[in-house]
Write a structure and sequence with these properties.
The protein has about 220 residues and is α/β, with parallel strands linked by helices. The chain contains six helices and nine strands. α2 links the parallel β1 and β2. The longest helix is centred in the middle third of the chain and has 14 residues. It is globular and about 50 Å long.
């Protein structure tokens, strides 16, 4: 997964990390012209940024909390500007700085309600009116395996569907309703697909959502 928020372990502990969530470049190109201002939050080692560069996008910014992953990205990328960030700090960009925002495998890592609201507010602030937000996140899974994960997570963290993965990283599986409730005041849902992602260990398949949002100009509270 692309990364932004860590707990017991850091994404610096995974120097050979491979991202597992898909991204539909054909749909992206239909919505975002080549001159678009793009930001990939939780860009990791630059997988998405590199493909976008190859497609002709050169106005790209990548953010991540992991210096190890950004060092990998720096070696692979030609045009993308990369920045190391702290997970609890505001993004150092003006309002409406970007037309297109990408967060893959990031929402699942933000398990605290105040932090997820802060993150969404910051994302909303830096997207231009009528701009697009492309999101992948793992969602609630119904299985004996995850039932036990959720139970153990509740016992430890007292929060729904929050659990500590084998990697030592804390995740939350949001339901679709939970997530839509968080973003509904400022975005319309353009596309929402329930699909299967590979898990972090690239062995199991886990349900998740691939969502495209469009910022609603008349509802925005940041402009």
């Amino acid at each position: 997964m692309e990364n932004i928020c860590v707990n017991n372990k850091s994404w610096d502990d995974y120097p050979n990390l491979l991202s597992t969530t898909p991204f539909n470049y054909d749909v992206f190109m239909k919505l975002c012209p080549l001159e678009s201002r793009i930001i990939d939050i939780g860009c990791g080692y630059g997988r998405i940024c590199k493909r976008l560069e190859n497609l002709g996008y050169h106005n790209i910014v990548g953010l991540d909390t992991s210096k190890v992953q950004l060092d990998r990205a720096q070696k692979a990328l030609n045009f993308t500007q990369l920045f190391l960030i702290n997970e609890n700090e505001a993004f150092n960009f003006l309002n409406a700085s970007f037309n297109c925002l990408i967060t893959l495998g990031v929402i699942d890592c933000i398990t605290d309600l105040d932090k997820i609201n802060f993150f969404i507010n910051e994302c909303t602030r830096i997207i231009d009116d009528n701009g697009y937000w492309f999101i992948n996140f793992y969602t609630r899974n119904d299985s004996e395996y995850f039932d036990l994960k959720y139970k153990n997570g509740w016992d430890e963290f007292r929060s729904k569907r929050v659990f500590l993965a084998k990697s030592g990283i804390k995740f939350k599986h949001y339901s679709l309703l939970e997530f839509i409730t968080l973003i509904d005041s400022c975005f319309d849902v353009i596309k929402c697909d329930l699909i299967e992602f590979l898990s972090f260990n690239q062995i199991n398949k886990v349900k998740g959502y691939s969502i495209i949002l469009k910022k609603i100009k008349y509802k925005s509270k940041f402009r």
